[in-house]
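Batch job 17 of 40 flagged for manual review because the log was empty.
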Amino acid sequence: MKSDTVFGHLVRQFAISPENLATEALSFILRTSPAASSAFTNFVRQIVSDCPDGMRFETQQVGVEQSIPDMKCVDDVGSIRVIVENKFWAGLTENQPVTYIRDLPAGVSALVLFVVPEARLQIVWDEVLERCQKNEISVRDVRKLTTMITGGIGQGHYLAATSWTVLLDALSTAATLTGQIESRNDIAQLIGLCKTMEEEEFLPLRGDELTNLGMARRIITFSDLPFGIVKEAVNQGLCDRQGVREVALRYGSGSYVRIGEYTAWVGFHANQWQQLGVSPIWVNFYPDRCPVAEVRNHLRQFRNTSPPRCFDMETRDYKNYKWVAVPILLPVGVEKQRIIEDAVRQIRELRDELDVREPLPATLTPMPTDDLDTNPENPENVLEIGAEGGSLSVVRQRN
């Protein structure tokens, strides 16, 4: 069912940044509703136990290194207690979360909180941890609560990620219990916006999107890249394409390959990229092509790594149609050939996880016509098919 609220309508109708709209709406609710503000503070106290009442909520304020967090929650002496970053489908910026962590005050307990769609919760959290690790920020005591994922980063500072659904349900419940009907209705509008963003909606095009030729080049690159990956993987004997074909899906393009006894599709899948945010290139094992349960069992290690390298997928259109999706993680800042080489390395790892050990059958390479013996007196029949009205012979010349 489509959401039907003013905010949901506006974000469809106009080229409004949904994250900015959601941030301003959340800030307005917290500033005008004592019940919502108190519920938010109690939500934060699950991590920061001494989070004070009566915080001030500031949006789009410039922080250290010119970072601009979505919302800062400041106590009565001006210390930042919570930095809130609201996301729908946009990726993390270069500042997130490291610069935000540096913006937290020394000697005061504080939190960096990411609010994201439920489907992105684990993905965003894994990326936050990875960025902290690269910047030598230790995240300890990671806990998965019913309301959020959280971890400590020292000096009384914390990281956390929660979903829009969980946070807004807490605010709405508080507004309802205290009889703040207007506030509850405002929260309902924001819930409608979030549902709109989680639906597969066509959003109005912005002018910069239409004139951004880099976007067109990226789409062409992502559509073309899988075929280069498949070609190199076949050349290295990791898979073959005998008896399979290239296939364009509704949201991408790619080719079927055989990895040992398993048939998989390798390609650009925009829908999975949008849903999971991991990679534009995927290796999918579909139930009408191979035993998915067997593949899933082989890929237990892939599933349990952090971040995960294997996902269970299910379509809404057909009941019980489930498949296994393995992302090809793309390195950044390198040339195309390096990307292909790293992708092939990952396919080799996938092949090992599938316990494919036997060598692939040698593929037949067509001989150059210049090297063929064209003597018509020395043909060799390979195959002959006869039917009423004629026949077809496949012959080759001995070299």
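Reviewer: the log was empty due to a logging misconfiguration, but the result itself is present. The chain has two domains: 6-198, 213-353. Unflagging and moving on to job 18.
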